[in-house]
Amino acid sequence: MDLSVDRTASGREYKVNDISQTGLWTELALAKMEMRSLETVRTKYGPNHPLKGAKITVSIDVTTPARVLIKTLNNLGAEVRVCSRGTHSTNDYAAAAIIAGDCASVFAWNGQTPREYVWCMERALDWGQRGGPDLIIDDGGDITRLICEGIKAEKMYEKTGQLPDLSSRGTEDPKLQVMLTNIRDGLKSDSQRFHRMKERLVGVSGMTTHGIQMLWKMQADGTFLEAIGINDSPIKRMWDNWYGTRLSLVEGLRRAFTGDSIAEKAAVVCGYGEVGKGCADALKEARAKVFVTENSPDYAFDALVDGFPVKPIDDFISMADFVVTTTDYKDGITVEHMRKMKNNAVICSIGQFDNDIDMEELETYPGVRRITINPQTDKWYFPETNTGVIVLAEGRMMNLGCATGHPSFVESCPYTDHVIGLLELWKLKDGRTDA
């Protein structure tokens, strides 16, 4: 993708896969009908425009429900710039529909490289001379991490003249490598960019476990500002993590294989938190034979009580027809695991941070061949056997890479939490505490 900003006739900035691919407006109307809690927010707060003047950056799954959220923010008076919260978390037609509806500036497309992904985040944070956004919705934690790393680098550069170390522990993450590279390259020309952003920023509404843990750490370090973690909302954890994956996992599997049967096949779910529970339930309802791997004794006990056999991954790997990772446990599935799997076994991830499946090791395996079966569905052949495994969405979030994400009704609850969180944070701008 050419990394240059496009503009609509009205001057709104964007970068999407295909501006003409706007999808069905009927789908948007149905989504609005399903998202009744957001409709209630618009009805109750909209006439007073409580977010008037707010510049909001939104990092989220760019889907049809996201357009309803963005339109709600518009109704409450806000201006919005949007990027995806992952390299494979965009429905291209939804991104185009947001531009066509003139709701927000959007920088998102499905199947981004790490460089493209970080570029989109930087565009979503770019409010010109305004110095950055007033508020942020951060679904995945990456856009918060970008700001945090920028602040840390600027402090270090001001104190010692030292640039970010791209070889330090933890920087093997390709996205973080790109973030640090861009921060390093921008320091000499503007060494206060992220500090200005911090000074303007009123607060963040965060929605993932990892992102919330990062916010707590930054708060302890004195690095960041006010934040509301809606991830701890019982509605969010149950609806989004459990019910959402329960509905979108099987949709992604069936779309990737044009309806291939799941029944009577062996499915291994790696992890049994809320997301893992939803995946196991979905596969069980599809009549698969479900097995669970889990490191936590508490969660392993939950799986046993729910009737699922629990063992280490090595005990299940050779019998698996499907392997679904949910844990964000780095390199939980390695090439050695893949070489032990059946021919045409399917591997996919529904975890947040794209690191469960060691794709780098697979891509660099000597003699490996990659054949695309369907979009986001690839078979990788090992040279020793000329057999191999099928990987969905390049090892990233398959329920968005191969399907359309969580249903509108499920997303309505956490998105409403986001809006209420922003309303509370926006009061802090003037030191207000009234309702």
TrEMBL record:
GO terms for cellular component: cytosol. Gene3D superfamilies: Adenosylhomocysteinase-like, NAD(P)-binding Rossmann-like Domain. The keyword Glycosyltransferase does not apply. Residues 241-405 form the S-adenosyl-L-homocysteine hydrolase NAD binding domain. Keywords: NAD, One-carbon metabolism. Its EC number is 3.13.2.1. One of its GO terms (biological process) is one-carbon metabolic process. One of its GO terms (molecular function) is adenosylhomocysteinase activity. Its cofactor is NAD(+). InterPro entries: Adenosylhomocyst_ase-like_sf, Adenosylhomocysteinase-like, Ado_hCys_hydrolase_NAD-bd, NAD(P)-bd_dom_sf. Pathway: Amino-acid biosynthesis; L-homocysteine biosynthesis; L-homocysteine from S-adenosyl-L-homocysteine: step 1/1. It catalyses: S-adenosyl-L-homocysteine + H2O = L-homocysteine + adenosine. Adenosylhomocysteine is a competitive inhibitor of S-adenosyl-L-methionine-dependent methyl transferase reactions; therefore adenosylhomocysteinase may play a key role in the control of methylations via regulation of the intracellular concentration of adenosylhomocysteine. Belongs to the adenosylhomocysteinase family. This is Adenosylhomocysteinase. It comes from Parasponia andersonii.
